[in-house]
């Protein structure tokens, strides 16, 4: 998948995607083997279930300079662990509203349900999310250059 | 309010092994644990104007003395804290007797708490107060970029004293996320945004009972209460929950819930 390239320019956007093992990661895989075209600006992190994603991880991602964070997992009712994604759905609401109140653009955080059979949906989600983040530009939470080097 | 003394004696007679309240000693208010009616502290017992997170003290007391019963003097905020702490398995309400005190009008107005009295009032007169929402409304009227600048400016004064966490009656974890070097870089002052403050805010979702002690304690005058109040509003708007209200209903962030609830949430 997308690689961290040394030649990355400052205004290149970076997206972190948390994908659940059973649905969305398999969906991403299907998109790959089907040779669907989608932008390669996404670093993905495979988790067993979206329910294991602590809101801390998302804060950390933004802290480390990600411009957008995507969480993708099984549709409600299809969770491999039955109800893991219920927690995700609830936490997501709280997280999104909190970040909005603090002034981070709403579009930088997204939750999508993508099944193992939805390779096309995965590609489409990545296309539209990348487009949205590109429109928003680099995150205002990115550390300044000087701070990064220090 | 001189009948605080008789209330203390009464509760000690009725089976409480100790009474937790405040005492005024040489002009200073401090917590006191009165274990018998002959205690010299009984004469010093006072409602006082200062507040202490007594729930925090009770967590330790209940644990250290597993077969004792405690009576405790509670304001509205103390009661809400104890209710929420019991659902988080930190205190056992069956071993507690709460003696309610209503905040005075002056206190209630200065604090701006949503309910400046507990469910049963033994001392003082109930008064209503309108919770202040001016700061939240001001922040909400700003654009995203301005809002971010506003908060960053406020948080830039933080000296990372942990006062907000230490005073908070709802903070009891042994391992605090704010001291986890993977989440908050050690030795950086002011702490980086968003890590420190947003982590604390998220942890207060479904927990903060709006006592305002954090903002009172903050030496840097950071409008913490407005942030956590907004967290309460979010919990109420999105998940229909208000911390400290019901002794049975738990925070939706601490149990799974039903498919129906989630579908409804998604349609919004
Ligand atoms: S108002 Fe502050 S101190 Fe009180 S419960 Fe909420 S976060 Fe904790
Ligand atoms: S009390 Fe104020 S200065 Fe101290 S850590 Fe909390 S926000 Fe920072």
Q: Which structural traits does this protein have?
A:
heterodimer; A: 150 residues; alpha/beta; Rossmann fold; 5 helices; 4 strands; disordered N terminus; B: 268 residues; 12 helices; 5 strands; binds iron/sulfur cluster
Could you explain the architecture of this structure?
The complex is a heterodimer of chains A (150) and B (268). By secondary structure, chain A is α/β, with parallel strands linked by helices. Chain A has one domain (2-142): Rossmann fold. Chain A contains five helices and four strands; from the N terminus they run βαβαβαβαα. In chain A, strands 2-1-3-4 form a four-stranded parallel beta sheet, with helices on both faces. In chain A, helix 1 (24-33) crosses helix 4 (119-136). The longest helix of chain A is centred in the middle third of the chain and has 19 residues, at 84-102. Chain A is globular, with a radius of gyration of 15 Å. In chain B, strands 1, 2, 3, 4 and 5 form a five-stranded mixed beta sheet that branches. The A-B interface holds A 55-56, 59-60, 62-63, 76-77, 83, 85-87, 89-91, 93-95, 97-105, 140-141, 143 and B 139-140, 142, 144-151, 177, 182-183, 192-195, 198-199, 201-202, 205, 227, 230-231, 234-235, 237-239, 252-253, 256-257, 259, 261-263, 265-266. The complex binds iron/sulfur cluster (2 copies).
**Largest contact between protein chains?**
A-B, 30 and 41 residues
Number of domain modules of chain A = 1
Level of helix content of chain B? 40-55%
Unreliably modeled segments of chain A: 1-5
Structural class of chain A: alpha/beta
Order of helices and strands of chain A: EHEHEHEHH
Estimated radius of gyration of chain B: 20 Å
Number of strands of chain A: 4
Extract low-pLDDT stretches of chain B. Answer: none
Give the helices and strands, then pairings.
The complex is a heterodimer of chains A (150) and B (268).
Chain A: E1 15-20, H1 24-33, E2 42-47, H2 55-63, E3 68-73, H3 84-102, E4 109-113, H4 119-136, H5 145-149
Parallel strand pairs in A: 1-2, 1-3, 3-4
Helix pairs in contact in A: 1-4
Chain B: H1 4-13, E1 18-25, E2 28-34, H2 41-44, E3 45-46, H3 54-64, E4 70-74, H4 76-87, E5 96-100, H5 105-111, H6 134-140, H7 144-155, H8 163-167, H9 195-204, H10 213-217, H11 224-239, H12 259-267
Parallel strand pairs in B: 1-4, 4-5
Antiparallel strand pairs in B: 1-2, 1-3
